[in-house]
Design a protein that fits this description.
The protein is mainly alpha-helical and 322 residues long. The protein has helices at 5-14, 19-42, 47-58, 61-68, 81-109, 114-146, 169-191, 212-234, 239-261, 268-275, 289-316. It folds into three domains: 5-68, no CATH class; 81-157, no CATH class; 166-316, no CATH class. The protein is 69% helix and 0% strand.
């Protein structure tokens, strides 16, 4: 024979409670449900309809049991949510970018193609982002369940100072000037030359990079200039602009680092006539001190360019910013 709905409801509620709470909750529910049913009957409801209506009002017995046991029904509650969100925003950008940069450098130095470098960096960035999101969330879920106090109470002293808006005219002018200088240097090296022994013109960059590789670099500089103008027009960095900036920076670094690793960036004639006489050598595989320093410099500059854009974008999209 099927037990009455009230009995089944009470047992479903108390079964997940600690033993010392079960009898008290059972007695309390029995009394409150009986009183509520009686109230419905006095208002003209049939006993069966009244019982069902009362149980519907009480809701899912598992949710009711969680209330009695003071057990949260969310992964991360309001006590830790903002801390979790702020930390995750930083880590999910910085750590995957560092991992992607390290992978790009390793693959570039190993002589991988540009496509392999880009795909490897993108794959490790995605994998790392998933792990960061998962493990940071797991830590905060544990903190939520154990009731650990992080001592992170908000204080007015934590309010940030007003920041000057990104994309000002001075910043735009400086960035466009720097990009124009870079493009001009590429063209000057090819057609006029920084190194001119006698009446000859010996380019520093490998002439074999013309026209396709140098053209690709010029296109990247042009896109970077357009991005700087977009930031100026928008008045700030946005998440979409930060994504575009990340793609541009990684593309530039991947091309240059691949060329360095293959020993194809510097003109061999320039090495023979300008560097070798001064005891500065660049091996065919790019494994000299000079190329190592150049690689590290490009990697560091790329990492900072990406980090700075995301820092500004996330700062403007923070829930504490208005």
């Amino acid at each position: 024979m099927t037990a009455p709905l009230t009995t089944r409801y009470i047992e479903a509620t108390v079964k997940s409670l600690p033993a010392h709470l079960q009898q008290d909750v059972r007695d309390e529910l029995s009394g409150s449900i009986a009183d509520a049913i009686e109230s419905h009957i006095e208002q003209g409801a049939l006993p069966a309809d009244a019982e069902k209506a009362v149980l519907l009002e009480l809701g899912d017995p598992s949710a009711l049991a969680a209330g009695y046991a003071d057990r949260p029904l969310h992964l991360i509650g309001p006590k830790y949510y903002l801390t979790w969100q702020r930390l995750l925003k930083i880590l999910i950008v910085v750590i995957p970018l560092c991992a992607a940069g390290g992978t790009a450098i390793a693959k570039g130095l190993a002589g991988s193609s540009t496509i392999d470098v880009l795909l490897g960096a993108a794959g490790i960035a995605l994998t790392t982002a998933v792990h960061v999101a998962f493990w940071v969330t797991v830590v905060f879920v544990i903190l939520e369940r154990t009731g650990t106090d992080l001592g992170l109470a908000w204080d007015p002293e934590q309010l940030p100072d007003p920041e000057a808006p990104s994309g000002g005219r001075v910043e735009l002018g400086f960035e466009l000037g720097f990009l124009a200088l870079g493009a001009g240097a590429l063209l000057w090296d090819r057609f006029i030359g920084f190194f001119r022994p006698g009446n000859e013109t010996v380019s520093i960059l490998n002439p074999g990079l013309w026209p396709w590789v140098i053209s690709a670099l010029l296109v990247i500089l042009a896109v970077q200039a357009a991005l700087a103008i977009a930031v100026h027009v928008k008045g700030r960095w946005t998440l979409s602009l930060a994504v575009i900036n990340t793609v541009i920076a990684l593309a530039f670094a991947a091309i240059v680092l691949t060329l360095i690793s293959r020993g194809e960036l510097i003109n061999p004639e320039f090495v023979d006539r300008a560097l070798t006489p001064n005891n500065v050598t660049i091996d065919a595989d790019g494994s000299s001190v000079l190329t190592t320093l150049l690689t590290l410099g490009i990697a560091a500059a790329t990492a900072w360019e990406i980090f700075d854009s995301w820092r500004k974008a996330l700062g403007h999209n923070s829930p504490n910013r208005r």
